[in-house]
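User: Could you go from structure to sequence for me? I need the amino acid at each position, not a summary. Structure tokens:
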């Protein structure tokens, strides 16, 4: 039993470098709107700090719900981010 407990840490694998892909910063508003402007102001700093390509994508409609739903349903790989001014919460189960 003790031998198995001592061997267990050797089974752990290191995670790869994150982010390993392009990060999409979703602005759930039309191009030129306040959320779009904020996203485009934040984008260069994020890109530099993370060392990854960050793009801004506008997904407007339904009072920001379309963009929020897009991010909520995206793969859980950390490459889709939402910038929003509404008090919304994305809960994943």
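Assistant: Here is the amino acid at each position, in order:
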């Amino acid at each position: 039993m003790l031998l198995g407990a001592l061997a267990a840490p050797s089974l752990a694998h290191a995670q790869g470098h994150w982010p390993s892909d392009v990060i999409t910063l979703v602005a759930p508003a039309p191009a030129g709107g306040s959320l779009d402007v904020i996203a485009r102001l934040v984008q260069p700093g994020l890109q530099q700090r993370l060392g990854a390509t960050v793009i801004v994508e506008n997904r407007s409609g339904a009072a920001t719900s379309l963009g929020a739903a897009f991010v909520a349903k995206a793969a859980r790989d950390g490459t889709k981010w939402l910038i929003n001014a509404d008090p919304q919460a994305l809960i994943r189960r």
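One structural detail worth keeping in mind: The mean pLDDT is 82.
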